Amino acid sequence: MSETQTTSTPWIRIREAAAHVGATVELRGWVAQHRSSGKVQFLVVRDGSGQMQCVAGLNDLSAEQWELGTSLTQECAVIVRGLVKAHPKQTGVFEMVLSHVELVGRAPDYPITPKEHGVDFLMDHRHLWLRSPRQQAILRIRAEIIRAFRDFMDEQGFTLVDAPIFTPNACEGTTNLFETQYFDDKAYLSQSGQLYMEAAAMALGRVYCFGPAFRAEKSKTRRHLIEFWMMEPEWAWATLGDVMNLEEKLLMNTIGRVLDRCREDLKVVERDVSKLERVTAPFPRLHYNDAVKMLQEAGRPFEWGGDLGAPDETELSNRYDSPLMVTHYPAAVKAFYMEPDPTDPRLSLSCDVLAPEGYGEIIGSGQRMSSLELLNQRIDEHGLPHSAFEWYKDLRRYGSVPHSGFGIGIERTLCWLAGLDHVRESAAFGRMLNRLAP
Ligand code: 4AD
Ligand code: MG
Question: pTM value?
Answer without folding.
Answer: 0.96
